[in-house]
Write a structure and sequence with these properties.
Length: 196
Amino acid sequence: MWKCLLIGTALAIPALAQNPPGAAEFANLREDVRGLTQRIGELSLRVEQLERENGELRQRASAANVSYATLNQVNASLADLERSLKTTIARSKEDTLEHVGTQMARLARDTNAVLDSLAKASVPRSSATATTTAAAATFSDNFPKEGVHYTVQKGDFLAAIAKKTGAKPQDIINANKLADPDRLVVGQNLFIPGGK
């Protein structure tokens, strides 16, 4: 549009030079040129304003892309946190179960000791039972206090269980107060001191 105005002005000037206009016509032309100049200035301002708005829109679009990437990063962080939390909870459960198992084994040993002492107190003493009771009462507390639990399987015997778990047979006898280690019962729960 500017080119058309400039071309029109350029064509009007030589025509004026050939036919000199009157003062009124010259004043009108001067006013037209001033109006066109003002309009060109307004259009220039409008173009600058549009360029500014375009730049702002580009910045907003760029910021929107950055926000979207940040949202993805937040989602990834939340997923990592959830995995970490699940792992920590699982470890905590395992530790709690192990601690409870150890406490239950100690409680079972203490209960067995009390029951054995009650049974010994209620059995009439004869020379034969006094010998058996004396032999059964020779359990030692000299064994590792940490270990694992083992459920007796069909065909298990003390030496095989000790070999499987890496424990000493005498430690198993002492920890479980086994009066007759050759009489293990299928399903019986044994504490294996120092076992793996």
